[in-house]
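Here's a chain:
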Amino acid sequence: IPCYNEEGNIDKLVERCNQFLLLDNAELILVNNGSTDNTKDKIENYSKLNNKIKFINIEKNIGFGDGVFKGLNSANNNFLAYTHADLQTDPNDVLAGFNLIRTEKDFIKGKRINKLKNEWSYFDIFISFSMTVFTSIIFRSFMNDIHSQPVIFHKKLIANSKYYPKDFMFDVWIFIKAKRLAFNIKRFPVIF
């Protein structure tokens, strides 16, 4: 989970990840992505209190994708997941996503539902729809709700990747990569 200036959310984030941390092989990697507040210190303290919480520090923020990729590359497990630190997405959605994995070729991605009920404006919905249309045309493949979280997959999907987008295009890149490598793409409903 890349964290940029999230000092006010770190306590809640770790608390919401408690159920995940109970899993035998769980590893929660919190990446301080160049924060200018006390995010780094808070994450570092949690990593000292719980050996299942791993602290990665990036001094200068160069983008969401950079924080995600560096965190994923430091993982010890075969199945990886990422999501946002701002609590707009429930970190426990990762548990629901893990339940959908059947093979190493499964690619699990949330699909945001009930947008109007969950405080989305019509403008937000328009932007999300526009991104779907734009990416679907550019990549000649249907790419609905591309920035939805969490995203879960086997580490072989990103093994030996020399290039990755450093910004929010990371979500597009990994989705296209999964499609091109014929991963089984499964979506499940999440509240954003």
About this structure: The first strand starts at residue 2 and ends at 3.
